[in-house]
Design brief:
Elements: E1 4-11, E2 15-17, H1 30-40, E3 43-49, H2 50-59, H3 71-82, E4 84-88, E5 100-103, H4 107-116, E6 121-125, H5 128-136, E7 142-148, E8 156-157, E9 168-175, E10 181-187
Parallel strand pairs: 1-6, 1-7, 3-4, 3-6, 4-5
Antiparallel strand pairs: 2-8, 7-10, 9-10
């Protein structure tokens, strides 16, 4: 059985994006990229909402061949181009995209089926509306939260409409020099 692993940048006050989807507050560095890269290599499937998928698709397929490509750009681009992708979207329903499956209906049962298949982990990147849906059914097994030392005051919260208490177990934590803290929790 596969684990569904959430990778998410979050502000100290619990937001994953500003009110209009802004993410310019996220603090990134090579240490974060290296840690994320090691974890990403343990997955053979990526799960996105439509907006995040379109953002990723606009950059990662060719990121490695750009003139100023970083080590992270090259590594993540290689991973992105070889993994299976799943997009949760009603507006993309019926589209035929190579290496990409679109889920438009019965999201929770479709994700449960994906988790039951053989393979490595499924990484869920960003995509707060998908995260909220999957949290409702307790389908996320691991939370990798990269907490930026920023208060943004308002925006899209990570945790929304949680109807039951869930205990999480802290597996790892790592503080970076610039104040970012990575917290890895699993369902306890």
């Amino acid at each position: 059985m596969r684990n569904l692993v959430l990778f998410m940048h979050i502000s100290l006050d619990g937001f994953v994006a500003g009110p209009n989807g802004e993410m310019d507050w996220i603090v990134l560095n090579d240490e974060v990229f290296d840690l994320a890269g090691k974890r990403t290599k343990k997955a053979d499937m990526a799960l996105y909402g439509r907006v995040t998928y379109q953002m990723m698709e606009a950059y990662w397929p060719t990121a490695a061949v750009q003139p100023n490509a970083t080590k992270h750009d090259k590594e993540h681009s290689e991973w992105y181009n070889k993994v299976s992708k799943v997009v949760v979207s009603r507006t993309m329903q019926g589209k035929d995209l190579a290496g990409t499956r679109i889920i438009s209906d019965n999201v929770n049962s479709e994700i449960k089926q994906l988790k039951e298949k053989e393979g490595e982990d499924i990484l869920l990147f960003g995509s707060p509306s998908v995260v909220h849906t999957l949290m409702q059914e307790n389908l996320i097994d691991d939370y990798w939260l990269f907490v930026s030392p920023v208060l943004i005051g308002k925006g899209i919260p990570l945790f929304k409409n949680i109807e039951q208490t869930r205990k999480l177990k802290l597996k790892k934590n790592k503080a970076f020099d610039d104040g970012v803290v990575c917290l890895h929790y699993s369902i306890g």
